[in-house]
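Deadline looming. Please check this record:
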Amino acid sequence: MKLAYTMAPGRGDTDLVLHALACSIIEQGHRPVGTVQINTESDAGPCDMDVKILPDGGTIRISQALGRASRGCRLDPAALETAVGLVEAELFKGADCLIVNKFGKHEAEGRGFRPVIADALARDIPVLVGINRLNQDAFLDFVGGFATELVPELPVLEDWLSSEITGDAAAA
């Protein structure tokens, strides 16, 4: 199965490495679809969370401004589902790989990008997913344990993805 995941230890580090990876493989002439997350600092509280739709789509704000005192989940479920729909449409157009910025709470509960991940795998399209420790068990349950864990280093991710795209996985 052409499926891997990565998780970086620092807050937002997985977002940074997946964004750099997407830029790199686009420069190499590949067509990734999916999302990469871009966080921007906010005066109103925690950072704003945006996702860029790959390969060349727009950016969608997936966080809600709930104020500094808020402790609840800031994810905007409707915005996330909009992103899912846009990625599904891009996948239908053809893709060299799928990058999903995070297997988060929505995915752990059976929603979000789960059907897109399954569709890509059914089409034999390589999939790379960012995860965090909180949702790691749910992700591994979802994929039945059939995923390769990759260290969150750009050269490692580039090598894995390139070998899976070209079908030279034995060399990786």
The helical segments are 13-27, 77-93, 105-108, 114-122, 133-142, 154-166. The chain has six helices and seven strands. Residues 62 and 78 are 8 Å apart (CA to CA). The first helix runs from residue 13 to 27.
